Amino acid sequence: MMVPILGTTSIALADSRSVPGSEAEIKLSFAPIVRRTGPAVVNIYAQKVVEQRRGWMFEDPFFRRFFGNEFPPGGQKRNRVENSLGSGVIVRADGIVVTNNHVIKDADDITVVLADRREFDATLLLKDKRTDIAVLRINTNGEELPIVALSDSDDLEVGDLVLALGNPFGVGRTVTSGIVSALARTSVGITDYRFFIQTDAAINPGNSGGALVDMTGKLVGINTAIYSRSGGSLGIGFAVPSNMVRTVVASAVSGKPLVRPWVSFVGKSVTADIANAIGLPRPYGVLVEEVYPDGPADAAGLQQGDVIMRLGKHEIEDGQALRFRLATRTLGDTVELTVFRRGETVKKQLELVPPPDLPPRNVTVLEGRHPLVGARVANLNPAMATELGIDSDARGVIVLSIARNSPSARYGFRPGDVILEIEGQPIGLVRDLKDFVQRPYNGWRLKLRRGDRQLNVRIG
Prior knowledge:
Blueprint: H1 5-15, H2 23-26, H3 31-37, E1 41-53, H4 61-67, E2 77-92, E3 96-100, H5 101-104, E4 109-113, E5 119-128, E6 133-138, E7 161-166, E8 174-185, E9 196-199, E10 211-213, E11 219-226, E12 237-241, H6 242-254, E13 265-269, H7 272-278, E14 286-291, H8 296-300, E15 307-311, E16 314-315, H9 319-327, E17 334-341, E18 344-351, E19 364-365, E20 375-379, H10 382-388, E21 397-402, H11 407-410, E22 418-422, E23 425-426, H12 430-437, E24 444-450, E25 453-459
Antiparallel strand pairs: 1-2, 1-4, 2-3, 3-6, 4-5, 5-6, 7-8, 7-10, 8-9, 9-12, 10-11, 11-12, 13-14, 14-15, 15-16, 15-17, 17-18, 19-20, 20-21, 21-22, 22-23, 22-24, 24-25
């Protein structure tokens, strides 16, 4: 009888297994990595004081008559302390600690507890909700602390072994192992820069802000979130790549605001339909739809219809990937873009500059007799757009706030709305809007952008 080839191959693979042949192989362990990195993983305790009213009954006249007037009108106020627990990583020996922004959000007091149980009051240097990273400083009085050095997260590959270190549930330092499950995850709406390392190393509540390290003991990411319906680990965890962490830390230590390069063009991810239409072999890259005049993209020679396929050595899968690659670069640098243009590949040099604060913001509260009375508006320029975490090349007049019980509130306008047109007239600047609202009001047809949607609204 002939033996199938598949069967022969299976037997050969099975026979290749062997028992450990030396004492070193028997004792193979992650312990040396944990010993080296563990002392630099800390606990973060954050406290904030919340003012709380003590019940509706203190405002009730009968209740006050029955129990006396010892309570102030409007109810008794008391302070309640809310605590949050997370993890952090020492990345500089002089006391620079990285954690998640959501761990220390709105905290009044932050305490860092080292692995040897010493406690330090921490100062917040910088918090960046767009990456969910916060940078703290503790006063070491000249003592050098153990650190975890930052690795180049671009060197990671799917399948690499990693360890997650942190303090889940407050039970003490814990280490879990796993592999890199995926890179460049962009569909996870945790932060504005949705570009994550995915791992199956167990990450649980309290692990936020902890270290994800490789087999050399270097930091490849900051553990940020898990995918879970129950709150427990399901083997799908996410970490902010170390290259993004490095950028935030550098800004925090310098004492300068965190400013990211200005894209200076409007683009969208290439779909299968777009790829077929322009002759790309597969859907990837970013299609340039509009170039901001006199911006760095214009100076680089980018044109409408170009597809950005690579930034340096990195392939650009979509718009999120391009934003991430630019955000991890330094202002003043020049990067090389590989561009697909009408069937050919060309190289362009893009200078990375900060977004301009032009046109001037011209913050104005609208008055008069029209639906936008009570709205506080401003010119949306690239610098403001970057601060607000929206497309840096968005234009129009943005609503910053709405006065309570004002006509603008009753008509349903919201902070963040960007007014683009009224009655077919483009609204590019606050002065355009002020000129228009001085006309007699006979009902409006508006075009505005709310989040990722463009709305056509009729009023009156």
